[in-house]
Specification:
about 260 residues, alpha+beta, N-terminal domain of MutM-like DNA repair proteins, Helicase, Ruva Protein, domain 3, four-stranded antiparallel sheet, 7 helices, 10 strands, about 25% helix, zinc, zinc-finger, nuclease
Length: about 260
């Protein structure tokens, strides 16, 4: 599933299509493709995991779900796109995606303060929303798009390891310093993800996600499906403290790799 930084990259890759008037529109979609013909793309934006293609009277919202993908210009993948848009400057092909039209102004639909990639990101708003969700598990809290729009499973796992919080911790049981660290690192890691993804070096920077050995204590990384989101959690049970349900009584122990 694309995460917020990936959608930012898509906006950059497709930036040359801004200002283009659509001449062709088709695809395997329930949307009226003819409505796009003759319309001009006025902007490309992102909110969390949503790719937003603004036209003069409406906006196309694209959610790539788990397996969605895209192709720009001559990179068509062969399969029939969910939506194909083309004009004089190039083409955009969207596959296996959830599409809908937004008729309202985007500022009435989205609170940009909740997007970890946005200049309007508000850490104080995120902290307040976490305080309102004390029973959430930490792994669910980071994937809550109302709190951390743009955070996906990779960012979740890496942030929790950075702040040494077990994914099954209760948000309300976290010490304030840990909750604050969660908010801070969600944004910090998202921008590092963006930098590494652009340089095609993201995988080499992953500490626990899809790893087998903890870089801190050299013990085995555990994998579990946790929370209401039922997403994969990679974590170190020795270095990441579990808060809540009496679990914090267990002492944290670490050992460093020899040499």
């Amino acid at each position: 599933m694309p995460e917020g930084p990936t959608i930012v990259i898509l906006c950059e890759e497709a930036a040359h299509l801004v200002g283009m008037r659509i001449k062709e529109a088709s695809g395997n979609t329930q949307l009226d493709a003819a409505r796009f013909v003759g319309r001009k793309i006025v902007a490309l934006r992102s909110w969390g995991k949503h790719f937003l293609v603004e036209f003069d009277r409406f906006t196309l919202r694209v959610h790539f779900l788990l397996f969605g993908r895209y192709a720009i210009d001559s990179e068509r993948k062969g399969a029939t796109p969910r939506l194909h848009l083309a004009g004089a400057r190039g083409e955009l092909n969207l596959y296996a995606s959830a599409l809908r039209l937004i008729e309202e102004p985007l500022d009435e639909v989205y609170d940009w303060r909740g997007d970890v990639m946005s200049d309007a990101w508000s850490p104080s708003l995120a902290r307040r929303k976490l305080a309102e969700r004390p029973n959430l598990l930490a792994c669910d809290a980071l994937l809550d798009q109302d709190v951390f729009a743009g955070v996906g499973n990779i960012i979740k796992n890496e942030v929790l390891f950075r702040i040494r919080v077990h994914p099954a911790s209760r948000v309300g049981a976290l010490p304030p310093v840990r909750r604050n660290a969660m908010v801070r690192e969600a944004r910090t890691y998202a921008f590092e993800f963006l930098k590494w993804k652009k340089a095609n070096v993201l995988k080499r920077h992953l500490l626990v996600h899809a790893r087998e050995e903890c870089p801190e204590c050299a013990g085995p990384i555990e994998l579990a499906t946790l929370g209401t989101t039922k997403r994969r959690a990679f974590f170190c049970p020795r270095c990441q403290v579990r808060y809540g349900d009496g679990a914090h009584a267990r002492k944290r122990t670490t050992r460093r790799r020899a040499g």
